[in-house]
Please model this.
Amino acid sequence: MSNKLHIPVLLDESIDSLNLKDDGIYIDCTFGRGGHTFKIASMISSKGKVIAFDRDKEAIDFFNENNKFKNCSIIKSNFSEIVKKLNEIGIEKVDGIIYDLGISSPQIDNKERGFSYLSDNIVDMRMDQQQEKTANFILKNYKYDELFQMFRNYANDKNPIRLCNRIIQFRENNSNNDFFTNDLVKIIRESIDRKILYSKKYPEKKYFQAIRMEVNNEVNEIIMSLNSATSILNKNGRIVVITFNSLEDKIVKDIFAEKSKNLFPKEVPIKDNLKNFNVINKKKIRDDFDSNSRSKSARIRCIERC
Model:
């Protein structure tokens, strides 16, 4: 495992959005390789705290090998359990929470993890390698309807009939074989329209993403975590989320919009419209786009407790 610190996309912009206090308590829900966690720890005082979450054992090991900050700790857990896990260590309120959604570069670059369509290995795609369900299991066992729903909901393919049929046909013809990334790329490319096939550099990308989201229950994790995270923010505390695809971004946008609604309808004759949260709109930086192609779709959303 590499000890190289991964620099996240939009690092400075996302940290700036947290509006750090010297003695604040901050949560990094997606430790990855520590870019946000260690940056926050270096910017607050010894009276403050940074608590990171991650479900990837490699990330936990990286933290244990590289953490040099006394105000910093990590919890191995899904971030949907943020409130429960913090309560277990006596923390009820925090001053900021950051999420860097999607998949980290070290996970993509490790071909044995089976995330990438650019190298050939058994498709795995687990964030937590201790869980049983893998991408390979899904492709070998999901029924037609389950495959159809997965690609329609997470890949935004309204009619993935050919793809689902080809997956089932492949496993019937190769009943004892695992699915390798090259197998999946070939199946996808044979299933999609030629117009799409030749107009996009990596047309399989969104289908790999859909399978990864299913393996890791990512949509439900995001929804559960954000809804619970808002309950533990101090006044003026902020939640900052970096998203990398339209589905993630819509989920975050909709939750933030719901949380920031006025508590009274406009028709109620009161001087000020009361609300619990304000949406803080941050401009997207493009400085690192040329050097990091994975950052092109990244954007930041931020909400602040009133």
